[in-house]
Amino acid sequence: MSVKRCVVKINYLIFKLLKSPRGIFILACWTFILFIAVSYLIVSFNNDPYKVDKPYIYIEPLTSYYRFQHGQVKRDWHDLVQIERESKRSGPGEQGLGVELKPEEQIAAQKIFQENKHNGYVSDKIARDRSLPDTRPAGCKSKLYLSELPTVSVIIPFHNEVLSTLTRTIHSVFNRSPPELLKEVILVNDYSDKEHCYGPLEKYIAEYFDVNKVKLLVMSKRSGLMWARLAGARAAAGDVLVFMDCHTEANVNWLPPLIEPIALNYKTCVCPYIDVISSSNYAYGSAGKGTRGVFNWQFYYEFLPLRPGDQKDETDPFQSPVMMGCVFAISAKFFWELGGYDTGMEIWGGEQYELSFKVWLCHGVQLDAPCSRVGHLYRPRPFLSSINTTYDYAHRNYKRVAEVWMDEYAQNVYEKDPDEWYPLDFGDVSFMKNIKQKLKCKPFKYFLEVVAPDMLEKFPPHEHDVFASGAIQSVANPNLCIDTLGARSGQSIGVYHCKSPFNLTKIHARQMFLLRRHRDIYVELSNNECFDIVHGTVSLFHCQFNQGNQYFRYNLDTQQIMCGPKRDKLCMEVNMSTKLIITALCDENKVLQKWKWGFVNTTMLKNWNEYGKPIMDMIENEDVRRENY
What we know:
There is one protein chain. This protein is an alpha+beta fold. It has 3 domains: about 40 residues; about 325 residues, Alpha-Beta Complex (Spore Coat Polysaccharide Biosynthesis Protein SpsA, Chain A); about 160 residues, Trefoil (Trefoil (Acidic Fibroblast Growth Factor, subunit A)). Helices cover about 30% and strands about 20% of the residues. It is built from 19 helices and 26 strands. The strands form 7 sheets. Strands 3, 4, 5, 6, 7, 8, 9, 12, 13 and 14 form a 10-stranded mixed beta sheet that branches. Helix 11 packs parallel to helix 12. The termini are far apart. About 0% of the residues have low confidence.
């Protein structure tokens, strides 16, 4: 039969059906079915997990938790049998203890450490379902949570991860999650080139886990953290998405406190407390007390203390402006309303800022849950190796975040390093700007004034009214200036040839310092590093804003930099043999203790107690007032 005759035949059947009400009904039904089928095919093709560069079309499932009303009855979700079983375990790494290696094992361990940036040799010695200490506040043990909670898809991207470390992450999720809440675990293999990430991993999964609850995706090329997470999110069927790094361990009863706030309000993003797993011996340690995450204007992650009223008691979730990003939960519905991750961002960097800003500015809330604990093994930039790029993708990602969400405040970032930021091509951000407009998101001013109102005080975009600034030149040898010497946190600093001995206000990354209103000496262009007194030497340490070992003063008359409480009478001195900066008893006649700043604010220094933040040491404060120093 020719095509023409087929068309004529179909037209005849349609006109015949249209002659009767029953025929019209049948035709309408078939049209509807055809429409549904075609739409399903289009959506399925578009939403393929591997098509991460395409916008995801989210259709809320008919069985979605948020389509139904739920009771407010609460229950104890603790698995007492599992807790009792783990309490009796002993062996290497059990109860979260670290493993110490014999001298003959150190060489083999060092090679593995260099390759993976953590001690995979130690990991292999520890049971993959090891027991952990309960690091929660005591009140969490009696805490009840809603008896009806949404289901969860746990998404774990990985690239060349040590098999024992990766499978320990999976074990911790299965062993410490209520089965009725754990919909699935989605593993996203980001194009690993290690054999154990394929056959051996699949064999292990088949042997130890419910294969009906495990999905394994394999990326066709090296994609990086964000795209791997997006692939997992596109494949997820749970009401809530939990993103986890592949070197983490979920602790006791971690899931109910993590997802209950999301059950109550789907526009909530929740992070657990992140405990610390040692990269050298796998010891599991508590995160300690809660802090609120923020950032400084160089896009480094920072912490602020909790404010009065943030918690009624230590078990309550509290608001946090910026997530750490290694583990968090968010409803699939809200995640896709926000557009997921910006698909124009690549590989690694900036994703926690982008999502945090979107949550807060687009009518959501972000919480930290003290009763949910997950250990995280910190290692240097896990997604950087084996990714070949010809551009600075991290700064490009940050600039995309700034351009879309930070409004006029983006200039505060760019002005920190104009030569780096202004010429940088950040690509097309129209999709995310359309999301921002569609959701009627708030301006970034709301974030600074309402969400993190104390951030600007601790991390101002511009340091105004500093006591002194610039390079710090040795009077004993004017060719030498204080230099960070590339030191990391906790390492000593010293002196080095002055970069600009005749212009001490000129900015050089390792020789630019500020004696700030906080009464500390801040390293300009650093990751919030300050001078700190450690065992009689001056070292770098994260700025604490509480003075103490980071309390410094400059005496205009004697040119000495005094450190610590005034009653200790300690001054900074250069050790000419080691070229390190040490502390010694102040001696006005000792030229090794004399320093010249690039700029000094004479008025502020002469009225030390009238400017800047309050002096926290009460004895020091009285000394200053009494001596009018």
